[in-house]
Amino acid sequence: MLEPKTNIEKLFVAIDESAELLKEELDITYLEALADAGENLFQGEVVQEISSATKKQLESRLAQIDFEVLHKEEVRKALQLAVLKGMKEATQPNHALTPDTVAIFISYLVNKITSKKEEVTIGDPAVGTGNLLTAVLNGLQKKKVKSYGLEADETLLHLAFVSANLQEQQIELYHQDSIRPLSLAPVDVILSDLPVGYYPNEEIAFQYELKAKEGRSFVHHLMIEKSVELTKENGYLIFLIPNFLFESDQAPALNAYLKEKTIILGLLQLPQTMFKNAQHGKSILILQKKGDEAVQPRQALLADMPSFSRQDALADMLKQIDRWFEEELNIS
Question: Rounded distance, CA 299 to CA 125, Å?
């Protein structure tokens, strides 16, 4: 194996090798072992009860890492590489990771919509491993930020907890399905890579306006409704949505709900090259919850994003988006 050169590579190798050792020793999945390896990094010592031989190997990996020289984004990206490796071996459909370029782009959008605020509250109702939320928080360094995340999957939540600690980000994390009743204060911004599928608890779904008239309800519809509830008046919502969101038989009800409760600011379709096939294509939906300060743009921001690897085309698109924010929302 080539000697790792960058800080990201060095940290990834140390975390990955530690996770593999713990996976073998404790007979757990790679993702579970990754969370344990991250816990050791944060504590600065091996906290699991394991054999002395394995403990010695883990301690040698810990000794290779100096967090004093690491930036938050380097830590996030190294963890992301390890999570991606774990996702490939996991079979759970809810184990997916927001692409890095998309997470950074959403961070840019959050910076735009919060540019006039010094203090911001942010929530993610499907926080997963925390990759999207921490990417956004890392991009809001000059603001005072409070944030929270909800996640029903215990392994993903543990990874989000470790990731937030290693990046020195204060995130309140809740082990909860966000469709169930919640008592959380509304926030300025909700962002989420929406899970897609059916919600299993019909009794709880029945309490929502966007419940299905017949059969099971879509979890992505219910989560949009819950997110609108969790957003302050005039606050913003940024969702990563499937391209087919507005094409199902339940889409008319979703459209009517969004028109009643929110202003649709923009819809940015991500390049198809990011997805294995067209069915998995996604877009970024930008909403503002209605309120006395909400701004109805003359024209919504509608665009097909170029490939993120085409630097010139992407720079041109960002100029157009900057111009739209300035002309339509008076945000520079």
Answer: 29
Model confidence, pTM:
0.92
Question: Which residue is it, tokens 């199902």?
Answer: 248
Rounded Cα distance between 46 and 48, Å, is 6
pLDDT in tens, 140-197: 968 899 999 999 999 999 999 999 999 999 999 999 999 999 889 999 999 999 999 9
Q: How far apart are CA 128 and CA 155, in angstroms?
A: 9
Q: What's the rounded Cα separation, in Å, for the pair 280 and 56? A: 44
In the block, which residue shows the tokens 């190997």?
A: 57
Residue 234 backbone class (left: φ over 0; alpha: ψ -120 to 50; beta: rest): left
- Phi–psi pair at 263, nearest 5 degrees: -110, 125
Q: In what order do the strands lie in the sheet with 262-269?
A: 171-174, 144-150, 119-124, 187-193, 231-242, 282-289, 262-269, 301-304
User: Taking a C-beta distance cutoff of 8 angstroms, is the pair 222, 205 a contact?
Assistant: yes
Query: What is d(CA 179, CA 190) in angstroms, rounded to the nearest whole number?
Result: 14
Pairing of strands 144-150, 119-124: parallel
State pLDDT tens for residues 209-236. 999 998 899 999 999 999 999 999 999 9
155 to 32, 40, 151, 273, 304: CA distances (angstroms): 6, 16, 9, 30, 35
Are the C-beta atoms of residues 296 and 263 closer than 8 Å to each other?
yes
Using the structure block, give the residue that is written with the tokens 């403990």. Answer: 55
Local structure of residue 280 (DSSP, 8 states):
G
The span from the CA of 54 to the CA of 234, in Å, is: 53
CB count in 10 Å sphere of residue 317: 18
Q: Give the residue ranges of the chain where pLDDT is below 70.
A: 1-4, 90-96, 141
